[in-house]
Amino acid sequence: MSKQKATQRKPKSAKKAKAANTSGSEPKSKGNYIDAFVKRILGRIFVFVDFLLHYGDKEFVAEIDLRKIKPAPTHYLGKDGKERILDLMFQCPLKHGGDLMAVIIFEHQSRDLKEIPRRLHKYVSAIWDAERKAGKKHLSAPYFLVLRTGKTPHRGDYPTMADLLPKGRDGKPLGHVPEIRYKVVDLPAWDFRNLVGGPVLRLVLGMLHKMTGGREDEFPEALLPLLEITDQEEKVELTNELLQFVEIAFAVNNRELDEATVDEALKPIYKDWERAMIKTLSERKYDEGIAVGEARGEARGEAKVAGAKVEAGKNMLLTFLRGKFGRVPKEVEKSIRQMTDPVALESLAAHAAQSETMGEFAETLH
Q: Could you tell me if residue 9 is inside a domain?
């Protein structure tokens, strides 16, 4: 791996530098790239189960059959393939019958959580509407975990719907106030050196801690759980995933990550010949360009590449369905063709593998 530093790009003027830092799209862009990273890694069933065991409420977890957890059925998608639930969601069968629908909500703001209660009501309605339409006899029990990555921990009570509604003379909310319980897993409150869970969970949580807490230069410490992973292929895959996330985080903060810094960070983890297996900076820059382009909606060329990957995924799914069921109804093909979210498409592919009939699969699109 080359140790030559990448050329740093400097703003042409102080005015332009300020504009780059105060762009109206920047907060959204930053949230999007963090969302994408968390979805890709926490979206793995074994990592989610690990997260649930260590950070979920013990009384809920005790009721779940952990062996049967799977991504939530894709009938939680809205019309024309648009997602109604944007966060990570899993269907968790209960030991004594019924399901618990666990949703991990990503909150990257330093502000309060006042919008969370309204968001939860929206999600519950979407889940239960879809289950009723699917003919499900018993509705799923909702369970919400808010993974918060603000720079300071949340203080005080969690916001409620009552906070948003009018009050009577006695100060109590008027009407019958529906409240939905939720748990906040607050990243800034964690002690980095005492993170719990398996190596992959500690990798993602540790990296989030370093990259959202204003300490980007400390990212090498977050890579150390890689030493515990014995599967070489998985180790290399995770390393590339983590380094891509680091580079995007640096770029969002108008910084440049150079090859020498990356090489130095990998020395405690890989031997010289092993480091050659890790993507070079230029290769990761290509991946970064796609991710940043998707997050900011600015890099049209990279967005085309990402779009091409989604189109390829649609074609592969349709080919799989034809091979398994013989024929794909026009309305089903139309719904798949209109999908744009790669995460939703992956969820749909997983459900296709589990469906026994085309009718069962088609129900997930309504």
A: no
- 70-71/99-107 β-pairing: unpaired
242 contacts: CB under 8 Å, gap ≥ 6: 203, 207, 222, 223
Which tens digit of pLDDT belongs to each residue from 198-220?
Answer: 999 999 999 998 888 767 788 99
The CA-to-CA distance between both ends of the chain, in Å, stands at: 50
Q: Number of structural domains, the chain?
A: 1
Specify whether the CB–CB gap between 128 and 139 falls below 8 A.
yes
Higher pLDDT among residues 34 and 288, named by residue: 34
Within-domain flag for 198: no
Give the three-class secondary structure for 194: helix
Domain of residue 330 covers: 304-366
Identify the burial level of 301 via C-beta atoms within 10 angstroms of its C-beta, where 0-12 means exposed, 13-18 middle and 19 or more buried.
exposed
- Band (pLDDT 50/70/90 cuts) for residue 6 is very low
The token pair that represents 225 in the structure block = 């759980």
Q: What is the pTM of this model?
A: 0.68
Cα–Cα distance, 347 to 352 (Å, whole number): 9
State residue 124 phi and psi, 5-degree precision: -60, -45
* pLDDT recorded at residue 24: 36
